[in-house]
User: What shape does this take?
Amino acid sequence: MKHLKKSINNHILPAQLADIPDILALFSEEVEAGRMLPRNKENLQAGIRDWRIAAINDEIVGCVSLVFFTPKLCEIRSLAVAEACRNNGLGKKLIEAALILAKERGAEDVLTLTRAPWLFERLGFQKNDIQNFPKKVQQDCQACPFIKNCDEVALLIKIKERILP
Ligand SMILES: CC(C)(COP(=O)(O)OP(=O)(O)OC[C@H]1O[C@@H](n2cnc3c(N)ncnc32)[C@H](O)[C@@H]1OP(=O)(O)O)[C@@H](O)C(=O)NCCC(=O)NCCS
Assistant: This one.
């Protein structure tokens, strides 16, 4: 789908409740493989305003969400792009949309824990130590089956003074 590149801006949208089954389907394989944290329907319903989707011809092909630990600190979570649509810039656009949303919500710092650090570094995120975020560790890492052999990298971006795209 290389033709997507020029018109990608128009496809990043706020998620609607009706999108939930498609969003969950988008990353169910990644969750089953243990590469992404699970999210459930109730959780999505409660926080639907913190999700953005990428849609092409009414088909949901990407998603991203924010999870808040404090009013000033949130995490980019559940970033996924359908396999057939990858490497067209959608992942980058979804992260940018999440940063704009984070700023609208009053966040100052945005964290991510990822196996794709390059995607975030090119947008200004910098490597950090997960132990600097005890609420994240307590809330998610403690119960994670991969806590002893975690291969994810923590990155942070400070958005308070930043002009976002
Ligand atoms: C990670 C993911 C969201 C990226 O989505 P995407 O739409 O392909 O992202 P983009 O097109 O914006 O960026 C891909 C870029 O990363 C580059 N890239 C891919 N793998 C790379 C690697 N191992 N090292 C460096 N760069 C890499 C690509 O070449 C591309 O670069 P380009 O834009 O200069 O061509 C997608 O691969 C995905 O859904 N993966 C499975 C779910 C997942 O791992 N989610 C967690 C991410 S936190």
Observations:
- The longest helix spans residues 90-104.
- The pocket of coenzyme A is lined by residues 30, 35-36, 79-81, 86-92, 114-116, 118-119 (CB under 6 Å).
- Helices lie at 20-32, 41-46, 90-104, 117-121, 134-141.
- Strands lie at 12-14, 51-56, 59-70, 73-81, 109-114, 126-127, 153-158.
